[in-house]
Amino acid sequence: MTLYTLHSRNASVVIEQPQNGAPILRYWGAPLSTTPDQQLWQRALAQAGLDEHSALSVVPTLADGTFMEPALRCHVEGRHWAPQWHCQCLSADDQQLTFQLQAVNFQVQIDWQLQLDTDTDVLSIDVRLTNLGPEPLSLEQWLTTLPLPLSMTEVMSFSGRWVHEFQPQRDRLPLGSLEYTNLRGRTSHDHFPGLLVSDREFSPDDGEVYGFHLGWSGNHRQRLERSQLGHSQYQAGAHLLPGEVSLSAGEQFDAPTLYACRSKAGYNGIAERFQRFVRAHILQLPGDAVRPVHINTWEALYFDHNQHGLDQLAEAGARVGAERYVLDDGWFLGRRDDSAGLGDWVVDPDIYPEQLHPLAATLKQHGLEFGLWVEPEMVNPRSRLYEQHPDWVLAIDGQHQPLARNQRVLDLTRTEVRDYLFDHLNALLSDYPIRYLKWDMNRDHVQAADADGRAAGFRQTQGLYTLLKRLRTQHPTVEIESCASGGARMDFGILHYTQRFWLSDCNDAHERQIMQQWAALFFPAEVLGSHIGPPESHTTSRVHQDDVRIGTAFFGHLGIEWDIRKLDDTAFARMERGIALHKAWRPLLHQGLRHTLNSGDDAQIAFSVSHKNRQLVSVFQQRMPTLAVGENLKLKRLVTGQIYRLQCLFEPQKTGHLMKQKPAWMDAQQAHFTGAELMQVGLPLPVLDPDTLLVLALEPMDP
């Protein structure tokens, strides 16, 4: 038996390599100064079971006697379905560990690598399976597995649907299993591939919490299991369709990376670790890292494209402070509505007789970057491409294939399809000064089969990554947004190739406050596209004041999704002010860490964003407060002895019916408090109407 210990800033991991069998995770917790005595892992052996200990390894199989779901399900023509392992360590240091496992009775090999990031404490696990034998190996399942403490029984996962993404749901892990499975061919609205587990009811700052995320943009499974034998585990991996992966001699399968971290200080600790990790190791911003303010044509113009209207919107956008103009759906051949044109990625001469050059000139005149909407993975049956290549879609020959938004899915496993898409996108990016692609994907996969009728879900996602990588290599200064009917493709896998997510097609500030709160557990603000919509939301019909909509979008990658051409001077001034404030605070917003605050009112969403001793605080009132006057809001992560200047950036204007007088600090000419006062005594809050917002700024004062 050999022990290996990895260390980071706030964590240690101890892995045992037994004399026989797969590696065992013996410890994952607070930093260790010495390796624990191995006797502490020698548990009692219960009656009425096997006559020897069966440890739960990081590669459980049907042969190890734990009776847990195996990581690996495979066989060679019905044989070799329950492997046992010979294991050797290939490399080890304080931050990484690589094992190679070979099956005892047949030639399958697993290369298992663990990395522990020094600064963020995030674990990354990568796995490669290789068929070393002469016969094809049928791979039915690989789930990267981590054992859990038995005390981890509270589960928070994230579900949702179109215009209602990132909704938390809480479950309790029984003696048995919980499973969250996605079969939609993209990351999905339904089951985000990440979750939290805790030893108590979830709290922002208290309790031990483990966070997990699978970096994969296709079908996936997450499982939690707890057994009567005293074992508990988390598993995640790509969900493989029947017969999808068959490895011939020498062929390899690379599993999606699993990311994990732990916190002793509630789920804010998970958010902090994942936000910092994404910035340091996944997100790749070309050139200047400043995230430009968008104006998008979709909710302003929909399919009503004409040069005069487009130019007017550009002028209005520049006037309020936008920095990038995104021409959305409707610019390409035959595209008058959503029933035709997808696949024909050339500018429609009927709408744009001079191509996109006049628009490019307008944008240059107003100092706006050029962005363009595309949906390359899809094709309309009413298109030239489909007429010429009806066989280029994912389908099972002879079976009915339902449409979704009048479109079918192109088969990205085919080289000629990827080449066609690359050539057309490359031409657009070469002909015009486009700095940004809004890459949409508006339907789920059904019967995702290739030309031979074989299941192609896994390879379809690989094909997407291949195409994106090729485009990024050819055009390294172009940013790409991952949009999939809103937030149906948000994960660390796609983020290796993109720089932004469209969190939701719903710009309703009430709904966005919820989505942004929980998405922040995994993603930093600068990748979360958040736009100012019109006063009445087109998805909910809910109406919000300008400051509520601006102050909500303020905390992401800001944009405008609204026809602002005919705003009156007062509304223009509010927009200008809000966007100017965002730009002033953008360094903090897009470098700082977001943490949930507990306001004492479960009808409020409260959080702070902190960076370099400056802080923004947001309090959104979702519904009527329970109490006439609530308790003070205790802030976090300030310097105890520092004096801070407090000011309101956004506050409700109509409050006379709720308060005879506001808290004293709100009417004071200058509000100055020490960090100790704000953290230990807290800040009295005004009484807020439902769907109103308070945004505060804290800046240190010179001694």
Output the structural class.
Answer: alpha+beta
The major β-sheet equals: 10 strands, antiparallel
Helix content range of the residues, please?
10-25%
The DSSP helix count reads 13
The overall pLDDT, averaged over residues, is 96
Number of domains: 3
Number of strands: 36
Shape: globular
CATH superfamily of the largest domain: Aldolase class I
Q: Work out the oligomeric state of the chains in this entry.
A: single chain
CATH fold group of the largest domain? TIM Barrel
Strand content: 25-35%
Radius of gyration: 27 Å
The CATH architecture of the largest domain would be Alpha-Beta Barrel
Description:
By secondary structure, the chain is of the alpha+beta class. The protein has 13 helices and 36 strands. The strands form 7 sheets. Strands 5, 6, 7, 8, 11, 12, 14, 15, 19 and 20 form a 10-stranded antiparallel sheet that branches. The protein has an 8-stranded parallel barrel with strand order 21-22-23-26-27-28-29-30, surrounded by 5 helices. Strands 31-32-33-36-34-35 form a 6-stranded antiparallel sheet. The mean pLDDT is 96.
Which terms summarize this structure?
single chain; 703 residues; alpha+beta; Beta-galactosidase, Chain A, domain 5; TIM Barrel; Immunoglobulin-like; 3 domains; 10-stranded antiparallel beta sheet; 8-stranded parallel beta barrel; 20% helix; 30% strand; globular
Element layout with pairings:
Layout: E1 2-7, E2 12-17, E3 24-29, E4 72-75, E5 85-92, E6 96-103, E7 108-116, E8 123-131, E9 137-142, E10 144-147, E11 154-161, E12 164-172, E13 176-182, E14 194-198, E15 209-215, E16 220-226, E17 232-238, E18 245-247, E19 252-254, E20 257-263, H1 266-282, E21 294-296, H2 298-301, H3 307-320, E22 324-327, H4 357-365, E23 369-374, E24 378-379, H5 384-388, E25 408-409, H6 415-431, E26 434-439, H7 457-474, E27 479-482, H8 492-495, E28 500-502, H9 509-519, E29 528-532, H10 546-553, E30 557-560, H11 569-589, E31 593-597, E32 604-611, E33 614-621, E34 643-650, H12 664-667, E35 671-674, H13 675-681, E36 692-700
Parallel strand pairs: 21-22, 21-30, 22-23, 23-26, 26-27, 27-28, 28-29, 29-30
Antiparallel strand pairs: 1-2, 2-3, 4-9, 5-6, 6-7, 7-8, 8-19, 8-20, 9-18, 10-17, 11-12, 11-14, 13-16, 14-15, 15-20, 16-17, 24-25, 31-32, 32-33, 33-36, 34-35, 34-36
Helix pairs in contact: 3-4, 6-7, 10-11
